[in-house]
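To whoever picks this up:

The nightly regression suite flagged Beta-ketoacyl synthase-like protein as changed. Nothing in the input moved, so I suspect the structure step. Input below, exactly as stored in the fixture:
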Amino acid sequence: MSPTAHRAGAAADSPATRQAGATADHLTARRAGAAANTVRARAAWPEPGETGAPAMPAGFIASTFPALVATVADRCLRRGYGEPGAPAAGGGERRTAVVLVSERGDQGTLDAVAAAVDGGRRMQPLLFFQSVPNAVLGWVAARWALVGPVVCVSPGGDPAAEGLELADLLIEDGDADDVLLLLADQAAGPDHPDRATAFLITRPS
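Regenerated output under the current build:
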C-alpha cells in the first residue's frame, strides 16, 4: 500500500484532522503538570484534499474498515519512525503497542458476511480472516515489525479519552515504549462519513 504522503503539520480542514488536533489537545490538557506521554506523530483520513476511499491493504476485501485503519497507521508510523524496515532507535526491537478504539467496529465485513449467509452464497474465505477485529492490526504490526501488545476496545464513553488512558497504562506499566493509538469508524449515514485518526504516543525522553 502506498498512501498519499502529507506533511504532519499540514493545515487541517476536514472533520478527521480537526478530531486529530482536538484529541492531541485533550492529551496535553488531561495530563498537564505531570510527566505526560507525548504525541510524536499523528495522521487522519481524510486529510485535506482527499476524496474517495483509502487504498485497501493486500489480503482484505469488501469493507473500507481495514483500509481506514491501515492507511492512518501507515501514515502515522512513517511520520514517527520513517520507512518500514528502518532500524529502531538503539538498534533493538520496536516495543510499540497497537490500540484500536472503535464504536462500531468493522461493520462492512459484518454486513458482507450477513449478506452472503442470507443469500445462501458461498462465503469468501478472506471474510473469515478479517471478521476478527484485530486482523488488520496484525497486518500493521507485521509490516512495521512492532512487538508490543495488540488491543481492540469498544468505548463505553469518549473514544479518545479511553484510548489515551489505555495508551498511558501500557507505557507506564512497562508493556510498551510507544503506543500507536487508532480511532476508526465507518460511515453511519451521510453526516458521519468514514473517518480515522492515528497517534504515535511515546514516553518523554
